[in-house]
Amino acid sequence: MRLTEIRRTTGFCFVVYLFFLGSTSIALAGNNDGASSGLYFGLTYGYNSIGGDFDGQKYFDFEEETILVPKVKSGSGVGIVLGSKFKLKRNKCIALELAHYNSTHDNARVWAEAGSVFFNMFILNVKYNFLANKITQPFFNGELALSKLRVEGGSLFGTNEVAIYGDASYGGLSVGFGGGIEYCPHPKVSVNLGVIFRFLIVYSVKGEFIETSNIETLMSISPNITIGLNYTFLSRKRLRK
User: Fold this and answer.
1) Contact 67, 205 (CB under 8 A)
2) 180 to 18, 55, 79, 160: CA distances (angstroms)
3) For residues 234 and 38, what is the distance between their CA atoms, to the nearest angstrom?
4) pLDDT digits (tens, 9 = 90+) for 172-192
5) Burial of residue 117, with CB atoms counted within 10 A of its CB: 0-12 exposed, 13-18 middle, 19 or more buried
6) How much is the average pLDDT of 22-35?
7) Is residue 22 pLDDT above 80, yes or no?
8) Which alpha helices (H) appear in the chain, and where do they start and end?
9) Which burial class, exposed, middle or buried, applies to 106 when counting CB atoms under 10 A from its CB (0-12, 13-18, 19+)?
10) Phi and psi dihedrals of 101, rounded to 5?
11) CATH classification code of 3-235
12) CA dist., res. 135 & res. 41, Å (int)
């Protein structure tokens, strides 16, 4: 890991720590029944960064074609969430979520046909809320996701005289840990703001002619910001104070 990434990681952890302390202080000020437990649907907006080995310095050279690893700029995207919230104790609850998320990124590694990078995730998320009888609730969360990056123009094949570009895809897994704050203005409605530290491992690549997992593993460790809006459409009893 480069020194700049270590500094960024340290700074991110410090911000998360301060954010959690601040959100806890705000939460203590409100006293309400909080959000309903039950099934909910949500929309998410996120701002993602992908770094590490996706620095534009690598490529995979196969007999059929060459895969050019992009340098991925930070980008934003949207997702949908289906979750269920369960009461644990008087002032705590846990939520299990299934989510699908897509973000679009620019490619800073310039070649003839370099295009956008599309980041796609299918996510299993676990969220643990503190002070669940308050209007404002701090939380921790962890996620496991199937991840895919598609790079426009990321595959090169043809002859020395005629170069042809196609798309390339990278498949892998990501694990994330973070925290945030959830605001519940109504028993059926909540708004959340969170930061998550995501570790992405890519172990397979697909081009126009090849698809293989026989590659050097690519890794990325980066912070991400999410904003979400949830609506509980099937409520259980409201959480007790």
Assistant:
1) yes
2) 11, 29, 18, 52
3) 6
4) 999 999 999 999 988 889 999
5) buried
6) 48
7) no
8) 3-29
9) middle
10) -135, 140
11) 2.40.160.20
12) 19
Residue 72 token pair = 């991925």
d(C-alpha 196, C-alpha 177), whole Å:
5
Alpha-carbon distance 192 to 81, whole Å? Answer: 13
Beta strand 59-61 with 211-212: parallel, antiparallel or unpaired?
A: unpaired
DSSP state of 180: E
Query: 107: exposed, middle or buried (C-beta count within 10 Å: 0-12, 13-18, 19+)?
Result: buried
Q: Name the band, by pLDDT with cuts 50, 70 and 90, for residue 63.
A: confident
pTM: 0.79
pLDDT tens, position by position, 205-222: 998 888 898 888 999 998
Domain ranges of the chain: 3-235
Number of residues that make up the chain: 241
Residue 49 has pLDDT above 80, yes or no: yes
The rounded distance, in Å, linking the Cα atoms of 134 and 91 is 8
Residue with tokens 């074609």: 65
Provide the mean pLDDT of the chain: 82
In the structure, what pLDDT confidence band is assigned to residue 19 with cuts at 50, 70 and 90? very low
Looking at this protein, which amino acid is placed at residue 199? F
Measured between alpha carbons, how far is residue 6 from residues 1, 17, 50, 173, 195 in Å? 7, 17, 15, 21, 17
User: Which residues have C-beta within 8 Å of that of residue 18, sequence separation ≥ 6?
Assistant: none
